Amino acid sequence: MNNQPTYLTLIQSLLNSPEDEQITILQNNLELIDDNFARYLREWATQTLAEMESEEATNITINILNFCNLIQQFPRGSKSSNMEIAIAGYEVGMQIFKRDTYAEFWATIQNNLAAAYSDRIREDKAENIERAIACFELALEVYTRADFPQQWATTQNNLATAYSDRIREDKAENIEKAIACFELALEVYTRAAFPQDWAMTQNNLAIAYRNRIREDKAENLEKAIACYELALEVRTRAAFPQQWAMTQENIAYAYQKKGLIPEAIKCFKSSLEIFKPDALPLSCLKAARNLGNTTFDIEQWETAIFGYEKAIEAVEQSREWIASENRKREIIEENLNVYEKMMQSCINHQQYHKAIQTIERSKSRYLVELFTNSEIYPKTATATEKQQLQNLRRQIASLQQFLETQTPISPLPTPVSHLPPPLTKGGPGGVPDSPSQRTTQTRPHTPELSQQQEKLVTALQQLEQFLETFKQREPEFKLTQKIQPIDIAEFQKTLDPKTAIIEWYIGNSNSPLLKGGWGGSDPSITTNNSNSNSPLLKGGWGGSAFIITRDNIELVTYTTTEIAELETWKDNYLNQYRDQKTNKIWQQTLSQKLEQLSQILRLNEIVAQIPPTSKQVILVPHRYLHLFPLHALPLEGGHAPSTAPTDVGGPRYLLDSFPDGVKYSPSLQLLELVKNRITTRKSTPKNQQQLFALQNPTEDLFNADMEVETIKTRFDLHQILLKKQATKIALNANGENLANANYLHFSCHGVFDFDYPLQSSLVLADSLEPILEINPPQPPLAKGGLREENTLAKGGLREENTLAKGGLREENSFAKGGLREEKPLANGGLEKDGLETKRYVTLRSGRKAIPEKCLTLGDIFGELQLPKCSLVTLSACETGLTSSTTMTDEYIGLPSGFLYAGSMNVVSSLWAVDDFATAILMIKFYQELPNADSVAIALNAAQNWMRGVNREDFLVWIGLLKLDKKSMKTVKEWLSYSSKDKPPFKDPEYWAAFCATGY
To answer: Does residue 250 carry a pLDDT above 90?
Structure first.
């Protein structure tokens, strides 16, 4: 453990601070609260206490135990590590507080240790529960009914819960033991003496009866309902609103299992009167989700929509409150079906507007959290405003952490002569809605809890009001703070009558709902009211495509079978592309793959529903569809007069059917934001438009020089950071020139980091780690690839067979980024440099780039301001990639970053493109721009020209460019190895990678 001195300092700070300060200390040192800390605490405490006098050791141990009580309920960091720390501390405590001298304390520690084992994530779950049971039983040897009746009853309650969770032995017998323990607890916890504890235990006993296996099932349910009703006699809404709501939810499950669905729905709704998304999101999520599931099964779509809408609000709020990325991911995985079932409910209820709004809400989650977690401030904020925002954030975080630990563990007091109340396991909640979740109990609602909830509501209102002050100055910033549902009907009114939008939603194939039907809130509960003739239930709903125009919304629905076929196609496409051994096959079969994708997505059916008057289409992909060139999917027939080049055989593509272009947008919300800029920006006369470009910063991109040198001649005003000049320092020094630029052109390496998306980079000069030259110098790199001067492959791609610096690699020299190996698109990580840890990103060539010296996505989101920018062109490989994964539906990548920074449009690529063909495409694209009404029209026109231009016409065009001799040699060399039987750039691999994103 290299952090021993740091761990020691942290331990000393924690043990010498009161509890409220300990929480702050923990929040500021989350990276240290790990399993190594638990091991160090055990070793340090064991050694240190052994060397101390008895009284001093006792006092230190009490502080350790108090800290263990806190860390056991601490909601941030890693829950598994928190439990290991608590267990280590409790076991150290028992070395000092032995049974023969400190029997009461020993029993308290046993009880708390049992609770920690119950919640433990590490090691075998079944064994952990056995240890918990053993510890509770040991505690009961001291906590006898005669000597400690209240502690005896509490431990019986906790032991009953452990039996309910038990995995080993006979399940039915375990539940019987749990019932017996609960009934024993009720002998002390009478309504007269301990009304709140009596009500809690009645609630817990009801859970056990509900899950009981032995005896008559109907009678067990009656007993469960009777216990819940008794609990509600004490847990009234006026006196104990949270406990009342929890019990309402629990009794709903019992009604549901008994088949009393209307009564269950009524109780779920009652619980939601208290469980609000903004104050109690986790409780709200569970109750609302189950209300939605229950009414979904019986096709009460309106109530299902109400439930799912509340659940979605709770999901979004709870993710904002949680710091641990693991726990955030768990919430995504557990609740992806909420969004999907909400959308299907809306479709079944023919509320297409709300269905699309649900898609949009799901697309905003990760982007919002990335910004918030990075503490990004409004770009226009003053120093005072930034401090105010920081203070509000800290206040809210503190209150949220308090409320997330709604069942605080009573700390051990300093005087050894006083015994604290034993631990009651659990927190807010009730019956789980799946067998895998642990049943929990709660302690009484306190005035302090109510006060803290009120403070949180007030603080959140203050934050909302504070952010409103930036709405006019910087409307984009609010998107980074809170999900703002878009009004689809209002959005439609702003659409051009000649524009159509296709927005996809691809259901998650890992969701059990897509494998075995939609299901209800409990796998054991069935209803007989489901209408099997519902069109969306036949074959299972797998996803949808919405066709949105100004006056209408049409729908194409995919079955689970079709989505499974899409998943198979996707895996084959990506695996072939990523594997260097099969990438050549990917290139050769790209046209066939795109034809298959068109058929799977039923693109002809979608296009047939677009009005013939539509001249432009905007594509809004979902999940992994962002990775594919949807504009280049072939069509049968068409929807309008074709814009395809004449006298060229081959398929007709989607872009051929829309003369005003095919463009992309990450979401409708971002599209609306970018569109609104048109009304607030003054157009710059063409002769005053400025180009700012980065040209070949790493000096290993041969065709980048030809590309930028030619493009810049089309601008009267241009500034080029050439090669070694293009450093991060130089870029920062040109902030004013960037702000005044109308066009930004990056001809450089690009790296997307899937592990740390904000670290995705455009590689600048002086950012590459130096490498040890153990081989002779090699010819210059193509964009990410390696060149061999005299070896060319058929089809215009060079094959590399020489040693690169550091070893043997096989890559295509003309591919911007080369061919992929069997590894992620770009690797990021940590590397030790002496005592310093450096973070880096790795290019496909193996070179490591230092993000601090690159232009990262985090820089773009947080610092870059492009108030006059019409277009950012990313002429590098794979710059259009996103973090879309199997379990998430967020779009986060360089295009969205530049759109947020102020650009109206971004042109980026989807694969490692041919270096020479890309240079030609970029030059032609900039030729088309001045006379085109949009970036999409210019790009599509350049792509159509590329598809159709023959060798002779191409050479005539090249002659007009007046290239230097070196560039002309490259042109002739490339053509000499391309096929003479068809236009040299006809295949999609040469032109289809680039997409226009924006408005």
So the answer is: yes
Instruction: Name the DSSP letter for residue 488.
Output: H
Residue 783 corresponds to which tokens in the numbers above? 């964009």
Please give the structure tokens belonging to residue 36. Answer: 């190594």
pLDDT value at position 876?
86
Query: In Å, what is the CA distance from 614 to each residue of 91, 512, 611, 634, 933?
Result: 72, 39, 6, 18, 16
Cβ partners under 8 Å of residue 781, min gap 6 = 698, 700, 701, 702, 787, 813, 845
Query: 510: closest CA among 556, 560, 558, 546?
Result: 560
CA distance 831 to 837: 6
Asked if 799 contacts 814 with a C-beta cutoff of 8 angstroms, the reply is no
Q: What is the pLDDT of residue 448?
A: 56
321: three-class secondary structure by DSSP: helix
> What gap in Å lies between CA 826 and CA 856, rounded to an integer?
14
Q: Which residues pair with 618 in a beta bridge?
A: 501, 663
Closest CA to 238 of 453, 445, 469, 12: 445
> If residue 592 lies in a helix (H) or strand (E), which one and from where to where?
helix 590-600
Rounded CA gap, 168 and 134, in Å?
Answer: 13
Give the Cα separation of 801 and 951 in Å (integer).
Answer: 29
Q: Which of residues 196 and 825 earns the better pLDDT score?
A: 196
The gap from C-alpha 372 to its chain's centroid, in whole angstroms, comes to: 13
Cβ(421)–Cβ(152) under 8 Å?
no
Output the CA–CA distances (angstroms, integers) from residue 662 to 656, 947, 995, in the order listed: 9, 16, 9
Q: Which two tokens stand for residue 900?
A: 């947020």
| Helices marked H in 193-240 | 195-211, 217-234
At 923 the three-state DSSP class reads helix
Location of structure tokens 């959140």: 460
DSSP E strand stretches across 697-747: 717-722, 743-747
The answer to whether residues 868 and 742 touch, using CB atoms and an 8 Å cutoff, is: yes
Report the alpha-carbon distance of residue 452 to residue 408 in Å, rounded: 14
Please, which residues have CB within 8 angstroms of residue 908's CB and are 6 or more apart in sequence?
874, 879, 880, 893, 894, 895, 994, 995, 997
The model's pLDDT over 516-545, given as tens digits with 9 standing for 90+, comes to: 333 333 323 323 333 333 444 445 789 999
> What DSSP state is assigned to residue 237?
T
pLDDT tens column, 625-641: 999 999 999 998 655 55
Identify the helix (H) or strand (E) that includes residue 130.
helix 125-142
Instruction: Let me know: does 116 contact 160? Beta carbons within 8 Å.
Output: no
Region class of 605: left (phi > 0), else alpha (psi between -120 and 50), else beta: alpha
DSSP, collapsed to helix, strand or coil, labels residue 110 as helix
C-beta separation of 968 from 976 below 8 A? no
Tokens of 573: 């496409």
Nearest CA-CA partner of 367 in 274, 280, 472, 478: 478
Are residues 796 and 778 in contact, defined by beta-carbon separation less than 8 angstroms?
no
- The torsion angles phi and psi of 473, rounded to 5 degrees, stand at -70, -40
Q: Which two tokens stand for residue 698?
A: 């790493």
Phi-psi region at 251: left, alpha or beta (left = phi > 0; alpha = psi -120 to 50): alpha
Of the CA atoms within 13 Å of residue 748, those in its CB half-sphere come to: 30
* Nearest CA-CA partner of 343 in 494, 479, 482, 503: 503
Contact (Cβ atoms closer than 8 angstroms) between residue 639 and residue 608: yes
pTM recorded for the entire structure: 0.75
Residues 338 and 312 sit within 8 Å (Cβ to Cβ): yes
The alpha carbon torsion through 491, 494, 500, 503 (nearest 10 deg) reads -20
Dist CA 918 CA 704 (whole Å): 9
- Asked if residues 746 and 704 have their Cβ atoms less than 8 Å apart, the reply is no
CA-nearest of 269, 334, 276 to 303 is 269
CA 268/CA 283 separation, integer angstroms: 11
Q: What token pair was written down for 950?
A: 């023959």
